[in-house]
Please model this.
Amino acid sequence: MKNFDETIANKGIELPLVEDFYSLQGEGYHTGKAAYFIRIGGCDIGCRWCDSKVSWNPNIHPLVHINTIVSNALKTPANAVVVTGGEPGLFNLEPLTRRLKEHGIKTFIETSGIKKLTGDWDWVCLSPKRQNPSVEDSYKIANELKVIIYENEDYRWAEKAASKVNSDCKLYLQSEWSRYQQNIPTIVEYVKTYPKWNVSLQAHKFMHIP
Model:
């Protein structure tokens, strides 16, 4: 990240907001459930297949006070918020989760786990990346492990990650979107062979919703 302001990241009172919107969760364990999404800018992982590259540079997104972000969420019927990115774990998220909890809103996060997570979370979806592995603490707190399958090597990476999470963590394999037709037959057979895994589909893309 260029010109990343560590002071802003550490305070967590203002966040570089890429977008926020009310929709349905499209992936993993909570697929189909209504939630308010908060996408935070800033990511230094650089996945070549990322579908949110606009979120990588935090400096091109406006800094928005967390009170405004929470106020926007409260204008909807949402009882859960999903914080995503980018990589939201780069920021101090304790102030944001505290304010959400004050209003009885459940807090979910989608993270690569490259830094020790801050904040109070009801659900942690960990999606570790081979090129920038998660810190060990991330595996211990994961409620859900979601590994993106781009190529065959990713299955070995998935098994390595699965060996580090708690026994009650939900395990998901999800095809990278542009390779869905190519990858899904192999993913299905893999899950049939190793039924501890589940298939995660990007349902929101099939439904053509945000």
Remarks:
- The domain at 6-207 is CATH 3.20.20.70 (TIM Barrel).
- The longest strand covers residues 14-24.
- The chain has seven helices and nine strands.
- Helices lie at 6-11, 66-74, 94-102, 136-141, 153-162, 180-193, 203-207.
